[in-house]
Write a structure and sequence with these properties.
By secondary structure, the chain is an alpha+beta fold. The protein is about 65% helix and about 15% strand. The strands form three sheets. The protein has a four-stranded antiparallel beta sheet with strand order 2-5-7-8. It folds into two domains: about 30-65 and about 125-290 and about 335-445, Outer membrane efflux proteins (OEP), CATH 1.20.1600; about 70-120 and about 295-330. The protein has helices at about 5-25, 35-45, 45-65, 125-130, 135-190, 200-235, 250-255, 270-290, 340-405, 410-445, and strands spanning about 30, 70-80, 85-90, 100-105, 110-125, 240-245, 295-305, 320-330.
């Protein structure tokens, strides 16, 4: 192959590689919390399957509708008798001796038939109840989608805002690492000049290493949090996700506890159970109608032909027409107590659902009260831990000044730094708890965005 041919192959290969890479290259998404939720409604597998369940129910409703529509069927048949059927007739009918029988065939060698039949239900209580229940079944499937999406949204809220809070945690760790590095530098300089022991340098080194290890562990947790969030949304894990929302304590506290009123009907699970109850009520009616007669009309139009030569579709072929219309009424009399058993079963299922609704009310009351108290407590904890963190930072700054002036020991500054780190950790932990408590409370009162 000449050099030009090699060049062409090289260009073709490069273009193919670029095209393939462009199709699989990771995407970059900059999402607010609402964009994350919207994305999950389109890509999360559980939500997608719930949407498919809705389409399945729609097709099931079409089957129910078909029971009330006319049924039209057409059929055709043709026969070639290798041996025609024989009928025995008294021989005397054709001039034979009395008391004997003679075989006679009345069937031509060939026959053909074609027909079309129509059946239409006039009254069937169970079919009509099925038609009435179609909307409730669709509403229940739609509510299942809402419940699934709400559960996904709940977890997205928690992970999203925890990742936002983690930015503050990383900033604090960076500041602490900078302080520890400076403390180590100062301790090392004083050790070199003979003003401190090697032990002081070692203590500062341990403090710095602990902070660096804590940061590395925190970053790993954050990375895994991003992977978890992307998986929850249905996003390819190789894609990049940038969170655009900002977090503030004011946003955490504002407006959530101003209106503590709630209604059971705001909860998707309560609405779903209400729709289930409605369907069981239809089920009771359906089995009641099993005791009623059913009526339908039917009719047929038929063509028949017979001959010893197969000429049905020629001009010499002769077809004979028949048709009818009829009314069929079925009156149930006894079915071995099956109808009564089905009716009692449906009534018991309805009673179970009513009991579940009462229990769910109590559960909602419990969820609201506990989540409300937890959120209030966590907000107070955030305030206390913030003040404690500010106080610990003030103590550290004062101790640092004394240390630099020779009025405080290395142990004093190390203890002050340890107290500051502990206070910061407690503050971040309190923020995490408050974020989760807020989401739980909003879900409990049925006001979580999904």
């Amino acid at each position: 192959m000449n050099s030009m041919g090699k060049l062409i192959l090289t260009i073709l290969f490069a273009n193919t590689f670029v095209a393939a890479y462009s199709q699989t290259a990771p995407a970059v998404h900059e999402f607010s919390i609402q964009q994350c939720i919207d994305y999950s409604r389109q890509h999360n597998v559980q939500v997608k399957n719930a949407l498919l369940d809705l389409q399945i129910q729609q097709q099931s409703n079409k089957v129910t509708t078909a029971d009330a529509l006319p049924k039209i069927t057409a059929s055709g048949a043709t026969q070639d008798f290798f041996q025609t059927p024989v009928t025995l007739v008294p021989a005397e009918f054709i001039g034979g001796p009395p008391g004997q029988f003679t075989p006679v065939t009345f069937q031509p060698k060939y026959s053909a038939s074609a027909s079309i039949q129509l059946t239409q239900t006039i009254f069937d209580g169970q079919v009509f109840i099925g038609l009435q229940a179609r909307k409730a079944s669709i509403d229940l499937s739609q509510k299942t989608i809402d419940i699934t999406a709400e559960k996904i949204s709940e977890n997205i809220h928690k992970i999203y805002y925890q990742l936002i809070v983690s930015k503050t945690q990383i900033e604090q760790l960076d500041a602490n690492i900078a302080r520890a590095q400076k403390l180590l530098n100062d301790a090392n300089a004083m050790y070199q000049n003979g003003f401190q022991e090697k032990l002081d340098v070692d203590k500062a080194t341990v403090q710095l290493t602990n902070l660096q290890t804590q940061k590395a562990s925190t970053q790993t947790t954050i990375y895994n949090g991003y992977f978890g969030l992307k998986y929850l949304m249905g996003m390819p894990v190789r894609d990049s996700l940038i969170l655009t929302d900002r977090f503030s304590e004011d946003d955490l506290k504002s407006g959530v506890l101003d209106d503590t009123a709630y209604r059971y009907e705001n909860r998707n699970d309560y609405q779903s159970l209400g729709l289930t109850k409605k369907l069981y009520e239809y089920n009771v009616k359906r089995y009641k109608y099993a005791y009623y007669p059913t009526a339908s009309i039917n009719g047929a139009f038929q063509k028949n032909a017979s001959a010893n030569t197969y000429n049905f579709f020629s001009k010499d072929g002769t077809w004979y027409t028949s048709s009818y219309a009829g009314l069929t009424i079925n009156v149930p009399i006894f079915s071995g107590f099956a109808k009564n058993a089905n009716l009692q079963k449906a009534r018991l299922q309805l009673l179970q659902t009513q009991n579940q609704m009462e229990d769910l009310k109590n559960s909602i009351d419990n969820d609201v009260i506990q989540s409300q108290n937890k959120f209030r407590s966590d907000i107070l904890t955030v305030d206390f831990q913030k003040k404690n963190m500010q106080l610990a930072e003030s103590v550290y700054n004062q101790t640092k000044k004394k240390y630099e002036s020779g009025l405080a020991s290395n142990t004093d500054i190390t203890n002050a730094q340890t107290d500051l780190i502990t206070a910061q950790t407690n503050y971040i932990s309190a923020l995490y708890d408050a974020v989760i408590a807020k989401v739980d409370y909003q879900k409990a009162i049925g006001k979580l965005k999904y």
